[in-house]
Amino acid sequence: MFELSAEDLNLSAEQKEVLAMIREFARREVRPAVKEYEPGDRYPHPLVDRMKELGLFGLTIPEEYGGAGLDHVTYALVFEELSAAWMSIAGVLGTHSIMAYVIARYGTEEQKQRFLPRMAAGELRGGLALTEPEAGSDVASIRTRARREGDAYVLNGVKTFITNSRHGTGLLVLAKTDPGAPKPSRGMSAFVFEHSGEVPGFTVRRDIPKLGYKGLDTCEIAFEDVRVPAENLVGGVEGEGFKQVMSGLEVGRINVAARAVGVARAALDDALRYSQQRVAFGKPIGRHQAIQQLLADAYAQIEAARQLVLFAARKKDRGERADLEAGAAKLFASEMCGRVTLDMMRVLGGYGYTTDFDLERYYRDAPLMIIGEGTNEIQRMVIANRLLEKYAL
User: Fold this and answer.
1) What pLDDT, in 10s, does the model give residues 219-232?
2) Among 360, 373, 377, 389, which one carries the catalytic annotation?
3) Is 360 considered catalytic here?
4) Range of the domain at 289
5) Residue 27 and residue 105 in one domain
6) Total tally of structural domains belonging to the chain
7) pLDDT one-digit tens code per residue, 28-66
8) Closest among 297, 267, 217, 296 to 85, alpha carbons compared
């Protein structure tokens, strides 16, 4: 397979061990299961159970709370490896990891003790309830409200495109607690909402059909006078939710960028194999200059994207602000993935367009990374504004 060795990545002994475990899991269990679950858009419960056993839900959760306490470089490489096998399975961990990050960084000690061990064990599997039918990129326009009533907050609103909302057991919900705040971002708060059983007023309205990213629940959900304990307000202070969620999205953009690298890598791997087996005009097509140009460009773009991802991850590991770097990694890697999957489909020709090969799945999955975790149009604005701020005259 086309993959970098642990030596090429200059990994520690612990990182090598984790990467070897993930590659084995992907090879032996994830890849063989794709054809069983992806075409029918079926949730892969057995794989999720195995991910619990392997401790994948606690990747970056601190060891003191039952997690593995891994760095973000390892986190990114795990997402790349899983996505090279099946991007949807990485999605099970995606928003879960954002929720865990926000609680670990901003939660009270009581909240950390109450939620993080269960998240690390996969008992509490989380998601991010941010996007709404009338508010996607424009987060300040969310309409979901949280009103304090005694020892609880009452939530009302609709969220859409929510991962892990049907098969997960918890959500990090962003809602307005002060709709009249002079600065809209200061009027938002984040809440930990658990829904492992039937919760009065909470409904999963529908599963949203998708081009790709199949096998993973993506739903529209509604809160109608849903009571959430006041002790579930992240950090115990109102008005901090926007900052908390935006910080978590830096982690999310790193994992989405890593997923894009994984999908593109898988596409190149399949194309390399095919180009050496398929013969045209008396020689393997990989020996024809037109095909070689496609393969060479794909390799260069994948390697460049990976370095951007790792650069952002290392900055996050140092505890530094990484919105510029994470945004750049997500922008470049996702656009690269879209180009590479189409180009590798060209290498396979007509076969690449059929379900006999995996190229069509990679091609269907690629647009998610361009749109998800903040569209690339938004990423360009984030990057430009951060540059103007960082290098102001």
Assistant:
1) 999 999 999 999 99
2) 373
3) no
4) 243-390
5) yes
6) 3
7) 999 999 999 999 999 999 999 999 999 999 999 999 999
8) 267
